[in-house]
Every structure is written in structure tokens, then in C-alpha cells.
Amino acid sequence: MIGRRQFRATPEVANPGESTTECSGGIIATMLIRDDLFDAFLDCKTKAHLRTSLIAATHPDSHPISEWRWHVAEQFKHKCGDLLISAAREGYFVGTPPPQDLTNATHHLILDPIVRSEHTESHIHALERIVPNQKPYNCYIPIRFTPSEKINKHHKLLLAFDAFVLWQASGQMPLFGKLIHGMRQTAVHVKLSTLIIKVDSIVQKLHSLLAARTTPDLVLIRHCRDCEFEGQCRSKAIEKDDLSLLDRFPVADRAKYNAKGIFTVTQLAYTFRPRRRPKRLAARKEKYHHALKALAIRDHKIHVAGNPQLALTGTPVYLDVEGVPERDFYYLIGVRIQEGSSIRHFSFWADDLDEEKQIWLAFLRVLERVNNPVVLHYGAYEATFLKRLEQRYDTVGYSSGLLKTVREQSINLLSTIYSQIYFPTYSNGLKDIARCLGFQWSDPAASGLQSIIWRQQWEETHDETLKQKLITYNREDCEALQIVAKATDGIVGGMKREERDSGPAEINGIGVQSEGVQDVSKWRRFDSSVTVLEAINEAAHWDYQRDRVYVRSSGWRAKPNRVTASARTVKPHINKVVKCETPRRCPLCKTKLAVGKARSKVVYDLRFGRASVRRWIVKYVFQQCECPRCGGPVHAVGQTWGRGKYGWNLISFLVYEIVELCVPQRTTTRNLNRLFHMSIPRSSACEQKRRASQYYADARQRLLKQIVDGPLIHVDETPISTSGKRSFVWVFCNFHEVVYFYSESREAGMMHGMLRDFKGVLVSDFYSAYDSLECPQQKCLIHLIRDLNNEMLSSPYDEELRWVVQTFGDLLKPIIDTIDRYGLKKHFLRKHVPGVQRFNEWLSNATFRSEAAEKCKERFEKNRNKLFTFLSYDGVPWNNNNAEHAVKAFAAIRDVAEGITTPRGIEEYLILLSVCESCRYQNIDFLEFLCSREKYLDEFVKNS
Known about the structure:
Number of helices: 32
Mean pLDDT: 81
CATH class of the largest domain: Alpha Beta
Strand order of the largest sheet: 1-5-6-9-10-11-12
Strand content: 15-25%
């Protein structure tokens, strides 16, 4: 047993050099993982890389914050070491003991040992022996000293690294570790089992980093403020215009933009797109737009988003507080008061925690003398200061209601600026914005972190120069706050004047620009950076195709003759009395009938003139008869009325307004009652719609048969909500007929049943269910072009993707020109087949590094045989425009009926809409067709 003596030994520390390993590329130097490298890696990958000896040209700049923290840590380390020595009951050892001493647990306490394993090394602050030979755990536990008042995960991982190295060197894991921290040198026990697993993972990543020949990506983070490499890293970032220059830019967002080819602040500025805010979000503040911040930096203009408000209704009091956050101690309160043209400044200093209450009360006395004070501060630190010190010190009776008024009327200037006013600075810090507005601090290194260092240095030396430096820094912060507040008030007022006068505002030579919003319609305009895509998209418009392409192509869209209604005489009230003859014999059994009882029937109807419509009431007079042999009723000769009291023209008008004009049923009923002095109940419109749908159900089936028997089908589907359940509507059409069918799901089973006999060409979008149909298929190229354009907008700097899209556009544009000139004739289109083959071969042999370009290539190869099918057929279009146009017609009805109707009601709509859209495709007036009482369109055209 060694007594209370001090043994000092100089450890045989090898130069923290290199162990070499072979790899396929030759010999790569692998650094020994030391505790300082591990510490640097936890802060920043770049810092760890720069600290290695492999970077011979790296010379860190002198950094006062970093140097002072190292000085404080060393002082605290010696202080804690002396404390452990004074408390040691047995002998202690300073330095690195022989390996057998560690194995045999010879010493009770070991200070400053260097423990090394095969790949790791740690300068452990202290090792303390616990219960000897407590297998399988190590007899020693690591101790680490940190001057921080609050322990975080970083400190625990450093302690776990000490334990990890000790475990690797001795083969035995320590049971736990100990952290001694803070002014009171508090000891905290830390369990190490879970943390050592985390350390092992970090060490492997650090090995990979040091073995790699490439440097890690340069990223500026919050730790850069107290790093010795801050100057050179920031200069490189500014040279590259790196995205990490933007303060608090999320790592996930940066990775997302990098995947799109956006790496610089200037590139990010071009991605900003103002959007119209929904009315439900009008009361909320704007979200922060990093792209708008980048735009402000690029243009060197102050950009305003939303409607910022700054209400200064009293005397402005500019407040800035300095404190030591780890101790929750506030030692300096700066107050700047502006009353008219005069400005007064107060500075309240506290030497220690005992004087904190005095400066707090002095601050309150100043506020009492101010008429209606409005406290302005920058950030939440001052708001927390007001709340904590009110709770910490009893001020009841001293200043009744003052603090409550101050808190309610205080203004956090940062919350007004954030997400609404974008200055051309990389951050929203007070220092950056005030310097942007022309203000300069007397000490260029002044910052909040530097003020904490100055305070720590003053507490150690009580140098009056440091105290004056802190008071000056605090006073200049108040002046800067006043300048930023006035600029913000000017911007808010300038925006209001700009709305009145349409004149741009300017603050300190920096233009102020308010970003407008884009009025985005439901059917948006197609814009692309590739001009050939815009020309192709223009050729896909429905009106363009029908009025220009197909009219030139052939005469297979002959227009039917329209039915014209003849003029009739209008009579008031009961406009017409019709006496119906009763048959003398039964139509079935020819039995002679007896004269029955006289009856009458009044039918309310409408009558259409050339340029008018009016109410038409007809009274039918007839005799009711029954066959004595058959026992059934015998109807009068020429009976045209049904069970209801409404005529067919009235039903036709109801269906016309509900289906073609998309008028709600309730509105249609109200219009008829008001204009024609009727008393139709609200439920009657639904009944008449059902009656008409039953009448035309066979017409839809005939339209479907005509479509299936034809050479071409356009197909599409769209969702709808019925009674709170999501379902789908399918559209099948060609150039003449359209049919709609309801389905509870998007599965292709119903489509297969309807199109099982179809042998023509199917034109569709890229929904995979269509691929299961065994027939030639043409995929909609306009869908493909829009998807490609969206990919380009998402990756605006991806040159490989742009190359693929441009090549495809150059291939398709001549084909569209041929169609525009000659129509959809394979005789003229087949000359483009070799060009398509060359494009496919080029794409198959091409290799891309871009993920977006490779994804685009895979899509082309998957649909290779379905993109240019129209070149080999007559009359097959290259897009699904007809089906999309039919979907738009249904969407208009969906906006009226969605959510309030049932599957049965939707089915009735779809039957009538099928007839309506088929009439539109064939240039037939839907109302005329309804009034004709014809059931089938082909028969209507034949009889016209």
C-alpha cells in the first residue's frame, strides 16, 4: 500500500502519429483517434478534419473565445485535481502509471493519465479506484472536469470516450463515470453502458472520415462562433456562396435543395415563388422563407412578406440586458429612453448576485418616471429577464401594476421582423441587421458570446477596462436596437404609403420591395424554361385540336342538322284543353267497351319558342274505361302524360339546367317557381332527374357499345366523395361519344368488364391499371411533358435532366408540326419512326449521374412501346385531351353535388351527363335532344 505521497512520472507518450493500412488505392494514413479529435468531431466534422496532422497547410487563427475557454478549462482542471488530492485517503499518482499498476489497481487516484489502445488514445482527467476486483467491470472509473454549470450530452459522450479507451486498453468496461462541474464542483455519476455503444459508432465514423482522401462538405453551424477555424471556413463559404451561410438553415432542407442541384445562396434566390395565403391562415404570421432571404441578399433589397405591424403608442424604452445564462445571473441592464428629441441612457451594473436585486429596483424606478413606457427589446432573452426577476424579487406594493403594463405593452422586435421583413443579411441577428443599416460597434469583435468571456475575465481580474468595455457594448446594443426599430417602423409605414401611392420605399439606401402573390387558377397556365414544351402544350388544347387539327385531317366529324322548333300560339292560364277519344274495343281482346266515367288531367309544362320560353298548361279530358274480359284499364287514344303532373318539356328544362348548366337542384326549382309562377316542391327536381335517368339508361349502354366497337378509346378516372366515402368516376370516350360510370374503388376490374371486347387503341395516362389491358396503347404525352417540366422546376440546375427533356422536345416538335399540317394520318407520320428509334437507342446507351435524369430514363424505357403508337395508326391522337375535357365537365357537377349526394344520385347524374357530353361532342343541342323525346342520339341525328 502506497502512503500519501506524490509520485510523478513522465509518460512514454509516442508522437500521436499514424498507423498505416493497405487498401486498393495504395497506403492510406490512419490517424490515432485522440480525445481532442473526438471532441472536435462532436462539434463539427470539418473541425476534426482540420485538426489532423494530415492537413499540413492548416494553421488555425487566433480565436479569443476558443483560447479563453481552453484557459478556463485548464484552470478548472487544476482546481478539481487539487480537490481530489486533498480528499484522497490513500496515495495518488500523477501521470501515466505502468500497465501493471492499472491491472492490479495499485493506486487509489490517478491524475492526468494518458491511456492508449490500438486505435484510440485519451488524456483522461482522473481515474478513481472503486471496489477492487469487481469482475467483469474495471476497478477504475474515469472522471472528467468541466467548468460548465449545466451538463449536456456532449460532456457525457466525452466521459464515455474516456471509458471506451480504458475498456479497449484493459479489456474491462468501467461500471460508471463521474463528471465534476460548475463553480461548486458538483459531482454527477453517469451510467456508461448505453453511451459507450454510441461512442463506438462515432469512433467508426471518425475513422472513416480521417481515412478518406476527400474533405467533408463545408457547413457553417452555431459552433463556428467559438472555433479557431472560423475565419478560414467562413471565407471559403463566402467564396462558394454556400447555403450554410444562411443562419438556422435546416440540415434536411439543405440536403433537399442539394439533391435538386441548388448549392449556393444565389441559386436558392431564384426558387422563391410568392403564393396567395388561404383565408383561414390570414390571422397567422407568415412562415419563414429561406428563399426570400436569399433573394434579399442577391438583390441587396429589403423584402417584405405579409402585413407586418409595429404599434408604438407610448414612450419607446429600448432595453438590452447582459447576463451569464448558465447561472441565470443578470449583471448589466441598459435602458435607452427617447422622449421627443431628447435621449437618456442608463446603465445598471452588478458585481455579484447579491447586487442583482439593486439594479432590478433601480430599473423599475426609471420606468416609473416614464410616461406610458413601451419596452422594445430584441429576442426572448429580455422577456425572460422581466418574468424571472419579477418572480425572483418581491415587488408588490413597490410598483403596483407597472410590470404588468410593461409586459403587456413590450414589443419583441425580432418577432416583428422574423418571417415578414427580410434584410439583405445572412441572419436576423441584431448585429447583422444594424451593420446593414450603417451602425458600427466600437469593438469589431463585440458579440453576445464575447460579452460572456469579458464578464468571466472581469470576475477573475476585476479589471476596470473590461467593465467599461461591457458597459460600452451594452449601450451600443441599445443604440443599434433604436436604429433597427426606427427602420422597421419606416418599412411598415412605407409599405402602407406604397399601397396608397404605388411608390417604392427606401431605407438607408436599401430598396424596400413588397412581394406580391400569384393568382393561381384551378386550371393553371403551363410555363416552362424549355420553349419547345410550351409550343407542344399549346397544340394539346382541346379547342385547338377540334377546330384546327381534326377539321383539317378528315371529314369524319360531319355536323348533324339541328332541329328547329316551330312557333306556337301562347294562351293564358289553361292554354289548351284536349279531349281524348276513348277506344270502342279493347286493344288486346277486342271486347266492346262500355262508356266510362269522365275524367280530366292537368299537365304543367313549358313551351319553347324561337327566342322565348313560357308556362304551358294543358288540360286533358277523357273517359276512364276497363275491359270487362281482361279487367285492365284502357287508356285514351293519344295519351302522352305519365303518372306525374309535369310535362316532358318541363322535365327536359330541369335536366338541362341541372346537368349542362350545373345549377343546384334547389336553385333550379326556385327559378322555375319564380319565373313561371309554379309551386314545384324541392324534392320534385330529384324525382324528375331520376325519371329522366331511367329513360336514358339504355342510351348510355348504346353509347358504350359504340365506343367499344370503335377503333379508339380515351379513358381516365377522377375521385369523388359520396356521403363521406371516397369513390371514383371512370370516363370512356372517343371523338363522338362519352360515357361515365361510377365505381367504389380505383381498381381496374370494372374497366376490364366493359372493355373486354375492345380491339382498338387505348389512349390513357400513366396509371398502371391500364397496362393490364391487352390492346395497343398510347400514353398521353402531354402528361409526360408536364411531369418532366415539374421535375425541371424541382431541379432547375440539373443539366443532365435538362438535356434529356430538351432532346425529347426536339423529337416531338416536328411530329406535332406534321400533325398540324396533315392531321393524324400514319402516311405522313411514319417518317418520324426512325427518329423515335434513334432516340430510344441513345437513351438506352446513355449513363447519367443525376438521380432525376436516371429516373426519367427509366420511365422512358418502361413505356417505350406506348409513347409513339399514334405514328402507326390513323386518327389516334398523342394525348388524352378528350378524356380530360370530359373529366372537366364532370368536375363542374362534382363541385355542386360532391358530399351531399349518394352513389345512386351520382349514377343518375352520370347517365344524363353521358348523353349531355355526347351531344356536345357531336354539336347537338342537349335541350333540343331532350325535348324531342328521342332516346338515342343516332336516331335523333337520322330524323333531324
